[in-house]
Design a protein that fits this description.
Elements: E1 11-17, H1 42-59, E2 63-69, E3 84-87, E4 91-94, H2 100-103, H3 108-117, E5 122-125, H4 138-141, E6 142-145, E7 150-154, H5 161-171, E8 174-178, E9 195-197, E10 201-204, H6 212-224, E11 228-231, H7 234-238, E12 245-248, E13 253-258, H8 259-264, H9 267-274, E14 278-282, H10 285-288, H11 294-297, E15 299-301
Parallel strand pairs: 1-2, 4-5, 7-8, 10-11, 13-14
Antiparallel strand pairs: 1-15, 3-4, 6-7, 9-10, 12-13
């Protein structure tokens, strides 16, 4: 049984979509997103996929707080990790979002649940930065090393350096920013599609970091943390292999990822992950059409229970 880790939360928030569709407001800078919806009953399929994913996580021993996404004006509500994050010591952050309809995803009932069930000392709300065009889309924009206190962030319109600096100052993280793009030159829109940090390993599409010197610095910093680096190809990144999250289950740590991502991994990569975690593939192909995968659907709770 793997030991508990501050990197791997034992409880999460997930929002079950009732009106899922591909968000036209986010398509311009999300190359992972399907350009048009395929097949009928998209919302129904996404709802069923999400419900089964929740069941599998609960079966693994993860506490899942499920909220219902019933507002038809929030097609991306299934991705709550972008609008809030939680942190040891009782701290919560609320983030500024680029797409206007994604700002509607922020929910007082989620924050109230956190205050009721967990020890919350303060809530820092950065959403006012939207008025100045400054965005920082949560743990999509940043991949956080909760052990080493480093915030890794790919440069994009959704990761403003001013907002990032404010967050890192308030929450005691060191920012490590880098440029990243695919082979067509399109910037990586969210860091968490190309990078996942576990307790004992880090998965990263390092070949997509376009500055060679900066790439070396990022890899060096990850190695200094004692983690084994699993290098992901651009093809694996396109299949969401980097969009995973380590969680604490009933009998040890698990790595929640999509079936698409699992199928893209090589046997040696799987073997490295299995040294410290159990892989839990979740089948969410409809939800992935929106340009995010399992990591995006999960907001980890790094708070102490009351």
């Amino acid at each position: 049984m793997s030991r508990p880790s501050v990197q791997a939360p034992a409880a999460v928030v997930m929002v079950r979509p009732h009106h899922f569709t591909v968000n036209t407001q986010t398509a311009a800078d999300n190359s992972f997103q399907a350009r048009q919806a395929a097949g009928g009953d998209l919302a129904g399929r996404a709802y069923r996929e999400h419900s089964e994913a929740v069941r599998q996580l609960q079966q693994a021993g993860v506490t899942v707080h499920v909220f219902e996404g019933t507002d038809p004006d929030t097609p991306d509500c299934v991705f709550p990790n972008n609008w809030f994050s939680t942190h040891a010591g009782g701290h919560v952050a609320i983030f500024p979002m680029k797409a206007p309809n994604r700002r509607l995803e922020r929910r007082p009932d989620v924050i109230e649940m956190l205050k009721t069930r967990y020890r919350v000392q303060d809530v820092i709300d950065y959403s006012g930065l939207e008025a100045d065009g400054l965005y920082l889309e949560g743990t999509g924009a940043m991949v956080l090393d909760h052990i080493g206190r480093v915030a890794y962030a790919a440069q994009s319109d959704r990761t403003n350096p001013v907002a990032l600096e404010r967050f890192c100052t308030h929450f005691n993280f060191e920012p490590m920013v880098f440029p990243a793009a695919d082979s067509a030159g399109a910037p990586v829109y969210h860091t968490n599609v190309m990078m996942c940090i576990g307790t004992d390993f880090a998965m990263i599409g390092d070949g997509m970091i376009t500055d060679a010197a900066r790439r070396g610095e990022i890899l060096s910093r990850l190695r200094q943390s004692g983690r084994e680096i699993i290098s992901l190809s651009e093809e694996q990144i396109a299949r969401f292999a980097g969009n995973a999250i380590e969680l604490q289950g009933a009998t040890g740590r698990i790595l929640a990822l999509s079936q698409t991502a699992f199928d893209a991994l090589q046997p040696d990569q799987i073997a490295t992950i299995q040294q410290s975690t159990t892989l839990v593939p979740l089948n969410i192909p409809t939800i992935e059409m929106a340009g995010g995968s399992v990591r995006c659907t999960i907001a980890g709770i790094h708070l102490s229970a009351r």
